[in-house]
Structures are given as C-alpha cells and as structure tokens.
Write the structure tokens for this entry.
Amino acid sequence: MTRALRYPASRYRTDPAPDLAARGERERLSAPALKAFFNIMTRWKVRDEDARALLGGVTNGPFYEMKRNPARMLDADRLTRVSYLIGIFKALHILHSRSLADEWVHLPNSNPLFGGQTPLAYMIRGGLPAMQTVRRLVDARRTG
C-alpha cells in the first residue's frame, strides 16, 4: 500500500489569490487600486494619455471620473494591470534610489526585451503581457 505524499509543514502561509470574477472582491480592491495607480502615475510623471493606455485604453470621461472619484469598481483586467504596476513600482524602489526608481520607466533600456525603447513605451505597446514581463524582470533582478 503506497502512502500519499504530503507537502512538508512550514510556518509560511499565503493568502489565497483574490477571486477577481467575484463582484465583492472587485468592489473591495478597486478603490485602493485606483488610488495606488494614480499615485504611481504622479510619481512616475506619466501623462494622462499614457496612463489611460496602461489601464487598457480608458476613454477621457471614465478616466477623469476615476481620477476624481476612485470609488468605482474595476473589471478583472484593469485590476490585474494595476497589480502589475504596483509590483513594478515596489520592486524598482527596492532596487534603486527613489529618484532613479521613479525615472526608470522613462529611460531608454538596453535590455534586448525593450529594443532600446523605454519600459513605459514597451508596456503601453504590449499591454498586459508586457506588464507581466516587466514585472517578472524587475522581480528577478530584485531577488538576484
């Protein structure tokens, strides 16, 4: 009789990932996500046109309403985009000084991934997959 394998016990526990299909989770996360997004856009000095593109192509009216009143519910796609940007922001601030961390998205990058473009241009052009790639890149640099 074979014995079932069990994952070894450890003190490390993770919270389950939020269910972004659940309306309640999106309602809970949306306002803090939008506040963080607009704070990051301010710190990075991103133009509103580019910020709208990072959110997935939000038109002017809804964008400025979100900016004025972040108590709006975002869809799963926009929450995911904001989550990647928060992770990128955090990793950059671990890796670099505040000024360089906030300027990094505007600097032409010699990494072949960016092809000489800025990380911001790469993320705008490539959308969600590009944001995920940049997040993985800065996290890999952060962890060594």
About this structure: The chain has a mean pLDDT of 93. DSSP finds six helices and no strands in the chain.
